[in-house]
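agent> fetching stored inputs for the zinc ion docking request
agent> found them:
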Amino acid sequence: LISALHESTFEFSRVHIVADRSLFKHLDSAGKDSLRRLERAGGAEVSAFADGRLVELAFGTDRPECGAILVTHDFLDDFRRRFPEIEGADAIGWRPGRDARPVPLGRSFGSRTHQRVSRKEEALELNERRLRRQDVLDRAAADRFRCTSESCLVARLWPDELQELPTYDGRSDSFVCPSCAGPLEVVGTRLAAVQVVVFHGDQEVVRLLVEEGRPVTIGRVDGPGQLGLERHLPADAVAAVSRTHAKLDFDGSDLWVTDCGSKNGTKIGRRGAAPQDRTLVRSSKPSQWRQRDVVYLPEGVYLERSGRRLPLTGELEATEGPPPSDVAPTALVSDSRSRP
Ligand SMILES: [Zn+2]
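agent> prediction call returned; pasting tokens
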């Protein structure tokens, strides 16, 4: 591939290889020798987590390689939320040529639905936390936990309750803190929930959690049982949303949406459906909101269900008291790998 790249029409100054450590076991001894030679000559590095290193080199803020272009067939789904610039970025792929010699080709990472990205992230997260068996996963998701260690960063950030899944310890058949690996205290049971993502244009603006039996309304300002979009949207979009616009209700298995007599209406339709194929959501009768449906509010504001099966994060409806501070929502809506 390296010599094929040098003979191709792609212009670049040099090739740098990032090899995943697991590659060695797939190489014969000549392959191992040549990778080691490249490594000693500075043309290759071996990483325990090659994908992450490649993404850092190409898209990270402290990238030493100015304008590095990736040669890969990967879609980098796990990294798309942290590096939105991956979407549409150019890359180089290859197809097999004569004599098994690869032929480099230009490709683009293209766009991925946020559902697909969420599912990939979740799979990665579950694997990291050793939550591989369904019965273990069910137990991990059934309770709310907190870490009580005084020296634990996560315990200091979220003293009342973990905002993420615990890690499973198979030897003791119990759950431990994902940050300090210390014991956890159960603070209560977790309600089944769905995570809803609010978009404006193509930008994700906020995620909210709709818990079983706790309907949430979406409107202009925060209030008891209501998520206000005023904090998240530009003024013209907020003006088109009614004071109390639509209600979301999760019964434990199905999610329902009802219009609250809004001025500009609420519509629902399959993702990608033409505007004339969207159905008006009524205020008299809830519409079922299936996984692939999009709920449309006015002015380019729309809602989709996230791809996560185990939603833990997202703003909860405001309860009595002052609106959340600027700090809290950021922590709540961030995913586990972008926390401070
Ligand atoms: Zn801890």
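agent> quick read of the result: Residues 320-340 have pLDDT under 50 and may be disordered.
agent> awaiting further instructions
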